[in-house]
Write a structure and sequence with these properties.
The protein is an alpha/beta fold. It folds into 3 domains: about 1-280, Spore Coat Polysaccharide Biosynthesis Protein SpsA, Chain A (Alpha-Beta Complex), CATH 3.90.550.10; about 285-360, no CATH class; about 370-475, Jelly Rolls, CATH 2.60.120.10. The protein has a 6-stranded antiparallel beta sheet with strand order 21-22-23-30-25-28, with no helix packed on it. Helix 6 crosses helix 7 (about 220-230).
């Protein structure tokens, strides 16, 4: 059986602000362990390989703005990339899966697609693998298979799957998909049994998905096929595939559940559910994050440098500084370099309203962290005032910034680690630690790390305008224009 993992890597994770930002969303965060949720997902799916199951390199569906982040995290984890399908705009998960199905069939194959969101936590990897392998066998018979999670509480933040109870079978018939319920309805689902949390994980052949989509939502199928026919390929850092921009933007925005899954019961499309007992969480909001961490005797969970006095059932998550809490209960406290969140844990879903407010006020805190990832490394804006800005810049071995110039700012560079190769106005110099150079306003320049260890510099900008859009690129090994 040929299996192609499909990792859905879109979304902004707004409910996990301020740790998750639209420019660095939750799937790329290391919330649990030393790997990001995206890296953990890719590793889990790669581990489905066995003598009867051949697993291909994954197809990643992500936004154009996250392409380098996804590719770099796979490289860091020694994980292969089959192709990255780049969405020019968000159109929800049904068009995303449709692009992946077209890509999977590109060479005349019809593999079984294992479709998983990139932002979930699964603690028991061995049980996940066994459950998924069972789902793959079931899907080889042209069924759609989804994984359901046995509910442990009357959760209102998840959708549910209602099944026909069958104690003799581990693969259940799906009766109905239901949306996120209110508290009383969720309690009924928990008490009655036969209802499971919808994990958002699906296993099905590429042809089965396309056939079902054509039956239930031919408008999405037709528009997606048109966008796929206008695709282009970019081989930078792996296979980046771009569907036609205007054609993709015209696709109706719809989820996998709404477009197909909810229509399958009582149709000629067979849909099954296998229970997943692997300590699953979608980490959709801060209360879910609190649930997965170990607690002290008062129900508190701490990540980072925190001191708590007489507090209960609280999450304190720190990134940079010591945070002290006294006498609080049922709260979430999250600290980052440029923002702090304090919220009632029971109202975690409403954190998204802060992100909406930041967006309306056109503030950058909803988009980027102070530390910003780039394909060549990262930079951290450590100080800023009128007409000056200070950055710490980290450049990966053998990586290079673009050949560029600025209209409004000059730059001083001080090397603090590694060796820098610098081109300025046609002249090339090499600088070591504690050496510096000056880049005058308007001069064409580039910095490269020719070494085998990371290069770090302190950059001091001065000028009348210091925005990131004051960059004119002449050459760029990552295929970027003025972005």
């Amino acid at each position: 059986m040929h299996v192609t993992p499909v990792i859905l890597c879109g979304g902004s994770g707004a409910r996990l602000w301020p740790l998750s930002r639209s420019g660095f969303p939750k799937q790329f965060l290391c919330l649990t362990g030393d790997e990001s949720l995206f890296q953990q997902t890719a590793r889990r799916l790669a581990g489905l390989d066995m003598p009867e199951i051949e697993v291909a390199d994954p197809l990643i569906v992500t936004g154009e703005e996250h392409r380098f982040l996804a590719a770099e995290q796979l490289r860091e984890g020694n994980l292969e990339l089959g192709a990255a399908l780049l969405e020019p705009v968000g159109r929800n998960t049904a068009p995303a899966l449709t692009l992946a199905a077209f890509a999977a069939q590109e060479n005349g194959d019809d593999p079984i697609l294992v479709v998983a969101p990139a932002d979930q936590s699964i603690v028991d990897g061995a049980t996940f693998t066994q459950t998924m392998q069972a789902a793959i066998y079931e899907a080889s018979n042209d069924s759609i298979v989804t994984l359901g999670v046995t509910p442990s509480r009357p959760e209102t933040g998840y959708g549910y799957i209602q099944t026909n109870l069958d104690p003799e079978s581990s693969c259940l018939d799906v009766r109905k998909f239901v949306e996120k319920p209110d508290a009383s309805k969720a309690q009924i689902y928990l008490s009655e049994g036969g209802c499971y949390w919808n994990s958002g994980i699906f296993v099905l052949k590429a042809s089965v998905w396309l056939s079902a989509l054509n039956s239930f939502r031919p408008d999405i199928a037709e528009a997606s096929e048109l966008a796929w026919s206008k695709r282009s390929l970019d081989d930078v850092m792996g296979g980046f595939i771009r569907p036609g921009k205007e054609e993709f933007a015209a696709i109706p925005s719809e989820s996998i559940d709404y477009a197909v899954m909810e229509n399958c019961p009582d149709s000629n499309v067979e849909i099954k559910m296998i229970p997943l007992e692997a300590s699953w969480s979608d980490l959709g909001a801060w209360d879910s994050v609190w649930n997965i961490f170990s607690k002290d005797s008062n129900g508190n969970a701490f990540v980072g440098d925190a001191i708590s006095i007489d507090s209960k059932n609280t999450l304190v998550y720190t990134s940079n500084r010591l945070v002290g809490v006294v006498g609080i209960e049922n709260l979430v406290v999250v600290e980052t370099a440029d923002a702090v969140l304090v919220a009632d844990k029971g109202r975690s879903q409403e954190v998204k309203q802060i992100v909406n407010a930041l967006n309306q006020q056109q503030r950058e805190e909803h988009t980027l962290h102070r530390k910003v990832s780039r394909p060549w490394g990262w930079y951290d804006s450590i100080d800023e005032c009128d007409h000056s800005k200070v950055k710490r810049i980290h450049i990966n071995p053998k990586a290079s910034l673009s050949l560029q110039k600025h209209y409004y700012r000059a730059e001083h560079w001080v090397v603090i680690k590694g060796t820098a190769e610098i081109i300025c106005d046609g002249d090339t110099v090499f600088l070591g630690e504690n050496q510096s150079t000056y880049i005058p306003l308007g001069k064409t320049h580039r910095i490269t790390n020719p070494g085998t260890i990371p290069l770090e510099i302190i950059e001091i900008q001065s000028g009348s305008y210091l925005g990131e859009d004051d960059i004119v690129r002449f050459e760029d090994c990552y295929g970027r224009g003025e972005e």
